Amino acid sequence: MNSKNKKIVLHKMWTTKSLVVMIFMLFLSAGMFAQGKKLVTGTVYDNTGTVLPGASVLETGTRNAATTDFDGKFTLEVAVGSSIEVSFIGSTTQKVQITASTSKIEVRLQNDGYQLNEVQVVSVGYGTQKKSDLTGSISTVTADNLVKGTISSTEQVLQGKVAGLNIIRPSGDPAAGASIRLRGGTSLTASNSPLIVVDGIAGVDINVVQPADIKSVDVLKDASATAIYGSRGANGVIIITTKSGTKGVSVVYNGQSSIGYVADNLDLLSANQWRGYVRETGNKDAVDFGGNTNWQKAIEQTAISQSHTLSINSGKTDSGFRASIGYLKNEGVIKKSGLERISGNVNAYQYLGDNKEVKFDMGLFANIDKWNPIDYRIFERTYNLNPTIPVYDNNGNFTNVNYTLYENPVEILTNRTVDNERHRLLGYFKTEVKFLNDFQAVANISLEHNALKGGTYKPTYAIMEGRSESGYAQRTYGEFTNAQGELYVNYSKVIDKHNISALAGYSYLENIYEGFGAQRSGFVTDAFSYNNLGAGSNYRLGDVYSYKGKSNLVSMYARANYGYDGKYLLTATVRRDGSSRFGENNKWGTFPSASAAWRISNEEFMSSTKDWLGSLKLRVGYGVTGNQDGIGEYKSLSILGVGKDSYYDPATGRWSLAYSPTQNPNPDLKWESTRQLNIGVDFSLFDRITGSFEWYQKNTDDLLYTYEVPQPPYLVGTMLANVGEMSNKGVELTLNADIVRGDKFNWNANLTLGHNVQKIEKLSNPTYKTDVIYSGSLHGLAGMSGQYSQIIAEGYPVGTFWGFKNAGLDENGKIQYYNAAGQVVAESALVDADKTALGNIQPDLTLGIGMNFTYKNFDLGISGYGMFGQKALNATNMMLSDPNRLPTYNVPDDFLGSGITSAPKYSDYWIEDASFFRLQTLSIGYTLPLNYKNSKLRMYIMGENLAVFTKYKGVDPEIGLNAQDGVNQTGVVDQTGLAGPGIDKFNNYPRPTTISVGLNFTLNN
């Protein structure tokens, strides 16, 4: 009996009732002492070593319990010989035996994949749902599982992380973006990228958010999930939720420094090999310039990069904020290239009311990018130049030899100035009001602003445009603004076994874009650079331009969810969009969807499977979505434009430029429409494995394309119209496994697989006709002007290579071919009818894999991704393998032994299997716990792009393997979708191998 109890009893001994109580307490105390009570203190951590506030600690078989505080600590008096059970939502329960010597314990809980899957909250557009209640196809990637490393384009964090989502970065240039494709493309000329939603704001630039600020990413795949976004949801939706203020005060610093280098160059003749060739052949036309230059390495450098982010978090029950600032300097492995970025983010929330009926939420994101674009023509020059030519002549000037396509690439990089700067800004203010118990109203206003300015100057002494133009200067500026307003009401009610929720809302979007540019040449001094265009004396028509446009989108939408007994789930959505882009006869579009799910594992007849089958859910969804990005502003209207013709105006006595029709009106113009059926299965096995399997079929109608039309009756010979049809169908598999789950050692693995088959179903109708669209231009390659390597035609996928099939070399080293009858013929006997399909750029399989190991405070992470079955045209090798190049131009090392005597001609001889698997990242870290409120310090070393397993002979097999990824000769990603996807054409900026060291420091208070 403790002293407090004794005092209470002594004060009341004079009553019989007190005496009885005292005797009872004595017996009780005796029993307690017989058991032996023990005061136990402890700390509870998750599997990463982070403390777990709110974990439950229960003495087994009793109601004696405690809950961990903010620092994960607890104190509980328990009987010696008993045990305690420690549990937390999403973690496996752990039992600890209490002995006489037990006083202080530490418990590390492991993730329970099944429970995490059940309770995980997922963004579904205008709200959230528990993952266990989803009826659509949605994949979630948390911050811990995003790709780490030197990230200059935010979409890279998802590479290989979501089944069916392809992130393709066709260049190693730090300033280059990546293309995003989900379940194949759905358009020929419009964007094929998913809609980006950041903290509820739709249609924003993904790079307005920095990786360190991301809390989770939800990828909405099927139409039943994306139909809530209507005419912008056909390509899928990526919803990014950023980190916000949480309870407590913390400061987090992340810093990283890295070294990058080019791991692989084309194997061309060295100076000594070139001289050996000249000696062996006795070529009298060869000129030895006395140098020994590896021109590829002459433009390369070791890239030194760094990144730093600092965030501050402060939160209470009713208010909080989080602020972060970041700095990135990502130096490129090509001289003068790189990206410098300063970024900032702040968000805050405030609750009002006794029951938190009102919540205010605001966020602000901003960043500034600066970079120096390079002229991608330098890569062709590095392959062309004789390796005996020195970079500098005897006078210290750049060496220049006057051959075609022979300019000194180091001089091109050095003797010109190109400065670009981009500003991004996104701000929003959100108000949430709860009323009538079951209702919540949300009002959200946002503004996004993006501005890009550029300046270029090529001095009077620079080759390529500088000398010929007597100096060339250019200034450009462009900006766009998206202003949005959203108002929607949520309703949620649980009645016995019935779970009902509904949503209805209204949205308004206004987009305004504008810009201008000017250029001049003919400068007598280079002192002004691009800052005084008026100093140039040469003026030409087209040297000055400007533009402005505006569009509006008005939407109404609704969604209803119903669940019964946690087993049967239904969802229905509808959105109606009205757009100023649509034609007069199609101003409004309606986009419905419906889906259902059956949680089979919750049925009584499945009770016998609980030991090994934690969860089993079947999902079916169908919906219609749209893509309006292919319709630019005013595309449905008749437009007049300034032509090259002039007319004499007698009133003024001057000649004036004439206006004439440049675009036919099309009142029937509308969005591209995609119908999608999705069947999915979610499961968890043996309390270790979670996964999902998906089958889908997408059919896109009303594909946009610019068709030739007769004149008359049309005033212009082309018209944008909705005609074609395309299909995509495929399967996806996602697996996550806790292979080993222990107190000290843990091993987790994840796998994503995707398979998609694409086909053009239709290109013509009675009004607009075309048999084939030629794409994959080979323009710019010697002797191939006007030639195309690909076709878009009914029955084939986008990016199908079309040409002659080779039959190997004959005895004279000439490439032979098969004609349409299967006979081997010489090149001179070929006709167009002999052309056939030669493969396509679409991968048969995409793969992502990751493994994470932890042992005590050490961690090891490995991730990789791959694409298999796609073809690529190695046009670089085709043009370099020309017997007429030597001795003036360089050739690949293996060409001398190839026996080829034919001049370059496009055929499948140059089409290669571009399958690859890339070891994306390998990291090793150590976390040092600090004895201050669970603060911690993690140090790590990381390697990126450490290895690529491929048979492809070019620099890199990841060269843009989907439509719209063709990078042209100036390094700009083609936006038509028809120029050069899957073609390696002197445009490969090397992808660096990077070694980084980093530090993560968290200080809690």
Highlighted features:
single chain, 1005 residues, 5-stranded mixed β-sheet, globular
DSSP E strands, number? 50
> What sort of overall outline do the alpha carbons produce when their principal axes are compared?
globular
What is the distance, rounded to the nearest whole angstrom, between the alpha carbons of the first and last residues?
Answer: 38 Å
Q: Helical amount among residues, as a percent range?
A: under 10%
Number of helices: 10
The radius of gyration over CA amounts to 33 Å
Beta fraction: over 45%
Largest sheet: 22 strands, antiparallel, barrel
Describe this structure in words.
By secondary structure, this protein is mainly β. It has 10 helices and 50 strands. It has a 22-stranded antiparallel β-barrel. Strands 10-15-16-13-14 form a 5-stranded mixed β-sheet. Strands 3-2-5-6 form a 4-stranded antiparallel β-sheet, with no helix packed on it. The longest helix is centred in the first third of the chain and has 20 residues, at 16-35. The relative contact order is 0.11.
